[in-house]
């Protein structure tokens, strides 16, 4: 476990290093970035860039400075928001994004697990078909399409919920639902397949052979074993939530990181784009690492691996 | 127990040769893997219906823009923002060119004095949505198929080499894969698009950069599994050259995983293109894709919902169909799912 | 022979698959007596597992169907029993051991909990008593340091140890019938011997009847009192161990015995029965073994053979036993065995 963990952390650092270098060199060498089109910048911006990145320094020095700054958590300053530091802009906006992300993840996995369990327990009945169909819809329909339709029908037409903005719980309902459809679909499908596989395993037959009822078998033996591998999809789920949050925040005018990111793309605010990119990458890599560790903690086979094996 | 059989005629107890029967039994063709899978897919109604719908959409993507008499790029401000109006169906009270304005139905075509029928209406520049939707579908499908094809070529090649060479080569190649796959693809794609000039080619390239990894993984996994199987070992000892071995034995066996994987990369590429266009770094006007149409429609959806809803429906149908077919094929090939 | 404890009558079981109806069991009859060990042998796919699973009603619900027949246990027909009634029988009166000890234990539950489950369920044990009983059981099946082992997970046990745990679970409530579906196939030879010894030993102590499924005729000779030979979803010959080994009547049994490696290791080449098992989607008319039978007759292709009586305990389903059938010479090695039998020297 310790060796595995060290290896994972090393990979994590390499990955982050590559992403950071990538952003630097892309911005540095490719046309269309502020480093190349200095004439497009205001005088003030040019001075800031100069100070920050030392544009007249030799390349290795610039690169080293850039990487050191990132390691220190300094992601540069924004153009569009009065030259505020990117890191504090990110911090300021992380609240709504996290709220939304956690709500969607939480609700999504719980509903998804329930759907998946129902589908597996009632395999090849209309409950199964219904749940599977919902899962296919959830996986297929892009969250922004779903969000836009929700906003139109529930917000504009029916006026049940506020159309946009961020002023309390009711404002978070539609975006959460829109974001949750993917976790629901992923969890439901995964849970169904996993449970069906577990149900066909010998130890479930043995559990039945002990005289357990179907419900007891499901609750005591099957679901726990099917739930453990579900942890592995939390990583991909987090990726999709991040992707989704960008458009969902934009659609519902939520002051989160995603919305700021999209706006920066549209206004060419490169420091924010780069900073957010690195921040997202960092977040993802950490989430995936946590998921891995979690898996090890929950699954006794991994938890005790390499431990005491007797015969 | 045997009493009732006492008076059976003696001829019945003549010995018969069973040689031919044995041969028959052995020669009886086992359902081949692919055929078996096909039988299963065929039973999956969702997959079959999806295939038919997709076929229809493919055909429309090719001929759709020419079915309507209007050029998808032609602008005519006098005919802007028209709601859908379709002959015959208009009599049913839908697609009749009317629109709710402050709770009242009014015939926009009459108001604007337009004689023609625009089946899906027009956008704010007076362009025909019907031909634009199919043009957009064509572009979206084109990008997705191209990306999936390139993913497939790179992924299969990488996976084959990695799996087949084994040893240190495999080890190094796997480490590289691990690192690349640690980079969130969204971020790579966005960075690439900020730098490349937006267009069909750059979107495709941006998606391919991380897209091939999944394919490389499954192909390698499959190669490792097949490599140990007897017939490969057998032809190796017989001295078949590596390349011939690869083509003759591996590719047919790999086709299953390759098809399944591709069936899932296509819809994810369609999604990505739409996503990028929606946040404004995908295709640029006047180019149309389903993503740009949805984006355009979204700007005015409170007043002209059809501009957004129609392309939304088309993209959803495409994505759902691909996913259902993919699921169908995957379940059919998956031995765990058989009963 | 003791009292009859289980009676299976004309059992027919089908699976509904995408390719059609698989008639896996096509009229199986057998009895099980108190305290005896009945071995069921036969090639892969002959229906051994399906037959025994049906006794516990553990066949997959969604695609299997008991078409007809009776399974009488304690004067009740299991075929007609409700799920509730079955739950009372399973693990208490009838229990089961599976082939692969690596997969038959729940990987995320401690060994102790898994053994305690049937105790608490059927034995009305309180938790602390169940724990004590579990420790006893672990000791009984020969697992050292039960106090430590009880808290461990299956992956911390070797294959042989796991199979001991599975046996402990199966015997926890001292069942009347123990079904062992190839309990030693997945184990290596020395461990195999130990497990077989353990089972024989425990059978004496608990006085249970055992249905023992195996491919391995060597094992049969070692553990069984009687043997049932299955082919193509039917029992084609049944008799005592001696009758089956030294006076076999069915050509399929001849083939099976000939394909058994001889104990003295004299034969260097193993006999293989030619041809392949019948397609249970379209079972042939007549005797399912006919296409592979060197001694096939016209009637084998037309009519299914009934069970012909050889002795009070010995029956075989082959037309060769019909009075009108020509006398055939069994393969040489079988004749040798029969000779030993008639001399009474086995
Ligand atoms: N769940 C199932 N669905 C469909 N067919 C099945 C199922 N289970 C068993 N069968 C069929 O029933 C027949 C008998 O199978 P069974 O498992 O009883 O064989 P067996 O004698 O135990 O073989 P083995 O020695 O390999 O364990 C086989 O032809 C098999 O294909
Ligand atoms: Mg079996």
UniProtKB/TrEMBL annotation, chain A:
Per the UniProt record, one Pfam family is BPD_transp_1
What name is this protein filed under? Answer: ABC transporter permease
GO CC aspect terms: plasma membrane
Family matches, as InterPro entries: BPD_transp_1_N, MetI-like, MetI-like_sf
Task: List where in the cell it is found.
Answer: Cell membrane
Location (main, coarse): membrane
CDD domains in the record, alphabetically? TM_PBP2
**Record keywords:** Cell membrane, Membrane, Transmembrane, Transmembrane helix, Transport
Q: Which GO terms of type biological process are on file?
A: transmembrane transport
Keyword Transmembrane in record:
yes
Q: Which species does the entry assign this protein to?
A: Cerasibacillus terrae
Q: Which chain regions cross the lipid bilayer?
A: 9-30, 100-121, 133-154, 169-191, 227-252, 272-295
Q: Where is the ABC transmembrane type-1 domain?
A: 94-295
Q: Key word Membrane present in the record?
A: yes
**What is stated as this protein's family in its record?**
Belongs to the binding-protein-dependent transport system permease family.
Membrane topology, from the record: Multi-pass membrane protein
UniProtKB/TrEMBL annotation, chain B:
| Gene3D superfamilies (alphabetical) | MetI-like
Q: InterPro entries annotated for this entry?
A: BP-dependent_transpt_permease, MetI-like, MetI-like_sf, OppC_N
**What are the residue boundaries of the ABC transmembrane type-1 domain, all occurrences included?**
137-326
Q: Which domain of life is it from?
A: Bacteria
Which GO CC terms are listed, alphabetically?
plasma membrane
Q: Where in the cell is it found?
A: Cell membrane
Keywords for the protein's UniProt record, in alphabetical order: Cell membrane, Membrane, Peptide transport, Protein transport, Transmembrane, Transmembrane helix, Transport
Bilayer topology reads:
Multi-pass membrane protein
Q: Which GO terms describe its biological process?
A: peptide transport; protein transport; transmembrane transport
Could you say which protein family the record assigns here?
Belongs to the binding-protein-dependent transport system permease family. OppBC subfamily.
Q: What is this protein called?
A: ABC transporter permease
| Source organism per UniProt | Cerasibacillus terrae
Q: What is the lineage of its organism?
A: Bacteria, Bacillati, Bacillota, Bacilli, Bacillales
From TrEMBL, chain C:
**Keyword annotations:** ATP-binding, Cell membrane, Membrane, Nucleotide-binding, Transport
How far does the signal peptide extend, from start to end residue?
none
* Localization per Swiss-Prot or TrEMBL: Cell membrane
Q: One Pfam family from the UniProt entry? A: ABC_tran
Classify the main location.
membrane
List each copy of the ABC transporter domain by range.
6-257
Protein name per its UniProtKB record: ABC transporter ATP-binding protein
Q: Which organism is it from?
A: Cerasibacillus terrae
């Amino acid at each position: 476990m310790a060796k595995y963990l060290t290896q994972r952390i090393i990979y994590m650092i390499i990955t982050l290093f590559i992403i950071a270098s990538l952003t630097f060199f892309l911005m540095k060498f490719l046309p269309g970035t502020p480093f190349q089109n200095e004439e497009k910048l205001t005088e003030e911006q040019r001075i800031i860039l100069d100070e920050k990145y030392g544009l007249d320094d030799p390349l290795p020095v610039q690169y080293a400075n850039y990487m050191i700054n990132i390691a220190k958590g300094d992601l540069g300053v924004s153009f569009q928001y009065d030259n505020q530091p990117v890191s504090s802009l990110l911090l300021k906006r992380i609240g709504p994004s996290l709220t939304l992300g956690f709500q969607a993840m939480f609700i999504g996995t719980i509903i998804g697990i329930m759907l998946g369990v129902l589908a597996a327990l009632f395999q090849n009945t209309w409950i199964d078909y219904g749940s599977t169909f919902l899962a296919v819809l959830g996986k297929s329909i892009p969250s922004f399409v779903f969000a836009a339709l929700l906003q139109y029908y529930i917000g504009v037409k029916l006026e049940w919920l506020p159309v946009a903005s961020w002023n309390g719980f009711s404002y978070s309902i539609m975006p959460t639902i829109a974001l949750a459809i993917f976790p629901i679909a992923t969890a439901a499908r995964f849970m169904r397949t996993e449970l069906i596989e577990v149900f066909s395993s010998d130890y479930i037959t043995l559990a039945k052979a002990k005289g357990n009822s179907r419900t007891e078998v499901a609750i005591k033996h099957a679901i726990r074993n099917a739930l453990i591998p579900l942890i592995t999809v939390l990583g991909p789920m987090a990726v999709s939530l991040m992707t989704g949050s960008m458009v969902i925040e934009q659609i519902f005018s939520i002051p989160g990181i995603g919305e700021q990111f999209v706006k920066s793309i549209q206004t060419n605010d490169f420091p924010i784009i780069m900073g957010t990119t690195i921040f997202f990458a960092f977040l993802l890599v950490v989430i995936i690492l946590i998921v891995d560790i979690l898996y090890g903690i929950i699954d006794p086979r991994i938890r005790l691996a390499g431990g005491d094996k007797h015969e | 127990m045997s009493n009732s059989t006492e008076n059976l005629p003696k001829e019945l107890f003549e010995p018969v040769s069973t040689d031919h029967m044995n041969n028959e039994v052995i020669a009886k063709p086992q359902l081949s893997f692919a055929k078996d899978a096909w039988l299963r897919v065929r039973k999956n109604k969702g997959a079959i219906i999806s295939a038919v719908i997709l076929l229809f959409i493919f055909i429309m993507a090719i001929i759709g823009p020419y079915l309507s008499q209007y050029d998808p790029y032609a602008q005519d401000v006098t005919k802007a923002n028209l709601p859908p109006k379709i002959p015959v169906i208009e009599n049913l009270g839908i697609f009749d060119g009317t629109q709710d304005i402050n709770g009242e139905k009014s015939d926009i075509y009459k108001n604007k004095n337009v004689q023609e029928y625009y089946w899906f209406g027009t956008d704010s520049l007076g362009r025909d949505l019907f031909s634009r939707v199919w043009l957009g579908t064509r572009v979206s499908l084109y990008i997705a198929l191209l990306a999936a094809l390139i993913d497939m070529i790179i992924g299969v090649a990488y996976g084959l080499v990695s799996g087949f060479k084994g040893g240190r080569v495999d080890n190094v190649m796997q480490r590289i894969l691990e690192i690349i796959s640690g980079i969130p693809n969204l971020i790579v794609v966005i960075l690439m698009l900020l730098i490349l000039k937006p267009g069909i080619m750059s979107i495709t390239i941006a998606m391919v950069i991380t897209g091939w990894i999944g394919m490389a993984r499954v192909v390698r996994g499959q190669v490792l599994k097949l490599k140990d199987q007897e017939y490969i070992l057998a032809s190796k000892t017989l001295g078949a050259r590596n390349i011939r071995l690869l083509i003759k034995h591996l590719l047919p066996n790999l086709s299953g995983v390759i098809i399944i994987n591709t069936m899932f990369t296509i819809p994810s590429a369609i999604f990505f293109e739409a996503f990028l266009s929606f946040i404004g770094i995908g295709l640029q006007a006047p180019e149309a894709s389903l993503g740009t149409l949805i984006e355009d429609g979204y700007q005015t959806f409170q007043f002209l919902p059809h501009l957004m809803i129609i392309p939304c429906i088309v993209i959803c149908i495409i994505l759902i169909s691909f996913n259902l077919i993919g699921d169908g094929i995957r379940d059919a090939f998956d031995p765990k799912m058989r009963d | 022979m003791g009292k009859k404890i289980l009676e299976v009558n004309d059992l027919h079981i089908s699976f509904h698959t995408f390719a059609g109806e698989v008639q896996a069991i096509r009229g199986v009859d057998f009895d099980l007596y108190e305290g005896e060990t009945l071995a069921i042998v036969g090639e892969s796919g002959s229906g051994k597992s399906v037959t025994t699973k049906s006794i516990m009603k553990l066949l997959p619900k969604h695609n299997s169907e008991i078409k007809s027949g009776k399974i009488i246990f304690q004067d009740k027909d299991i075929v007609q029993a409700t799920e509730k009634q079955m739950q009372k029988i399973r693990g208490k009166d009838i229990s089961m051991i599976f082939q692969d000890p690596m997969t038959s234990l729940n990987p995320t539950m401690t060994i102790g909990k898994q053994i305690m489950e049937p105790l608490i369920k059927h034995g009305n044990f309180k938790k602390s008593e169940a724990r004590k009983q579990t420790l006893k059981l672990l000791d009984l099946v020969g697992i050292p340091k039960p106090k430590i082992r009880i808290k461990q997970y299956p992956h911390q046990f070797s294959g042989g140890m796991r199979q001991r745990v599975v046996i402990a679970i199966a015997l926890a409530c001292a069942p009347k019938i123990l079904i062992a579906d190839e309990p030693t196939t997945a184990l290596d030879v020395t461990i195999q011997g130990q497990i077989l010894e353990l089972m024989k030993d425990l059978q004496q102590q608990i006085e249970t009847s055992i249905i023992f499924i195996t491919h391995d005729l060597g094992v049969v000779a070692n553990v069984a009192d009687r043997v049932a030979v299955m082919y193509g979803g039917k029992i084609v010959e049944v008799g005592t161990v001696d009758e089956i080994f030294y006076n076999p009547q069915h050509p399929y049994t001849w083939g099976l015995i000939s394909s058994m490696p001889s104990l003295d290791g004299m034969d260097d080449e193993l006999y293989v029965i030619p041809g392949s098992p019948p397609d249970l989607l379209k079972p042939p008319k007549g005797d399912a073994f006919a296409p592979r039978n060197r001694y096939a007759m016209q009637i084998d292709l037309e009519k299914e053979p009934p069970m012909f009586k050889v002795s009070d305990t010995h029956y075989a389903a082959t037309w060769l036993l019909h009075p009108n059938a020509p006398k055939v010479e069994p393969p040489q090695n079988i004749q040798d065995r029969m000779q030993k039998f008639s001399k009474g020297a086995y």
